[in-house]
Design goal:
It is a single chain. This protein is mainly alpha-helical and about 180 residues long. About 70% of the residues lie in helices and about 0% in strands. The longest helix has 20 residues.
Length: about 180
């Protein structure tokens, strides 16, 4: 049911984005302008073209990034419930984006004073908070293979610190791939 909800949300966001980007006449033009002014509040540097009527993809990639691990779980039809990493797989997107990336961004903005080498805008403090928040949550809910889980989370955290791409897609993809590799 959750996979269907993600698919519906993605579809609705795509429809809104099409309406926002293209005006098909006076009446729909006003809807487009209203959506543009609403969206302008939430745009970041990755969606700079959207301010001029271009495509805004951050919100779409957030939904797809959260949904992708669940969709992969259903497509691959993973049924090994005894493997803890397999049980983690459907939740990797929400864990990485909803918990880790969010906590890391807040901590990096509020407390970050040591940027990663190489000119990254990410900070060591934000990355540490990302890792600790994800690890703590999994520990609290009872994941006991903490070495494998910690390794996956550490690699995802390092990947987040080094990427300049749209991390809403890259992080869940990396996390999903690592969980599948480590679960094998």
């Amino acid at each position: 049911m959750m996979a269907l909800s993600y698919a519906i949300a993605t579809t609705l966001l795509m429809i809104l984005e099409i309406v926002r980007c293209y005006s098909f006449g006076e009446e729909r033009g006003s809807i487009s302008l209203s959506l543009n002014s609403f969206y302008a509040i939430f745009l970041d540097e990755k969606d700079s073209l959207a301010a001029d009527g271009g495509l805004a993809i951050t919100h779409l990639t957030l939904i797809v990034g959260c949904a992708m691990p669940l969709w992969v779980t259903q497509i691959v039809n993973v049924t090994d419930e005894s493997n803890l990493l397999v049980r983690l797989l459907p939740f990797v997107g929400v864990l990485v984006l909803g918990i880790g990336d969010s906590a890391g961004a807040i901590a990096g903005i509020k407390f970050g004073s040591h940027p990663w080498p190489g000119g990254s805008s990410r900070t060591l403090e934000g990355s540490l908070c990302m890792f600790v928040s994800m690890f703590a949550l999994l520990y609290l809910v009872g994941f006991d293979d903490l070495f494998k889980v910690g390794t996956v989370l550490a690699i995802v955290t390092l990947f987040e610190a080094s990427t300049s791409q749209i991390d809403n897609l890259c992080l869940p993809l990396a996390g999903t791939s690592l969980v599948v590799l480590f679960a094998a």
